[in-house]
Amino acid sequence: MEFESFSGIEYRMGNFWDYWLAGWIWISIAIAVGFLVYIGVKWTTWGWGDRLTAIFAIWIVPHVWEEWVWPGGFHYMYNTLSGSATPDRYPMSELTDMITNFGLLVVSVVVVAIWGARVPVMIAAMLFSGFEAVIHTASVYMSYGHFGTGRHVLAYDPGLATALLGYLPLCLGLILVLRRTTPRPTLRQWLIGAGMTLILLVIVFIPEQILKDPNSPYRFQDHGYYNQFITSE
């Protein structure tokens, strides 16, 4: 018996990862909705630091929805620009990207739930939000150049909208909060915040480096936004 994941790939029943890959986004949405309720309950008693870090913790969910589901296809651009001969699964596969994104969600929610808007947490959220905005903006131009201006009529990559409309405002908002924080953040707090950011970046890059496989069974079948370029080649 077989079933489909969000990317359209058919998986064999009975394998844990097959089940998980078919439903992890729904579980992520459920976590985000639950945490959003928590944010709503706490909103009037929180300052802007708490509010922004809490929103940051769950913003990965709409971001992943844009990258994976609608319009989807971020993997195809990423893998193609990496020079892959199998851009449907290498170096980024459904498995590696799931580990990255679900890991970011869980770690962010747990940290914010425990420590709230402590200065190092705000610094980490600010730096990582800025990283997402910069990376997606840069990838737009790399993608634009690779696929050609004749066909690539829109300067866009899957994830750009949620990066610029979500992560960028979060970054700028946290900069303002940190500038108004008294006493000003210390060097030690900046170093701790940078260390927390590094942990988030490890979650982003290390699973792929460890598990990348050109023969991975966890391939993306639907290339989303980039289908238009594939079919026209």
UniProtKB/TrEMBL annotation:
Cross-referenced InterPro entries: HXXEE
Keywords: Membrane, Transmembrane, Transmembrane helix
Protein name: HXXEE domain-containing protein
Pfam families: HXXEE
Residue stretches spanning the membrane: 20-41, 48-65, 98-117, 124-147, 159-178, 190-207
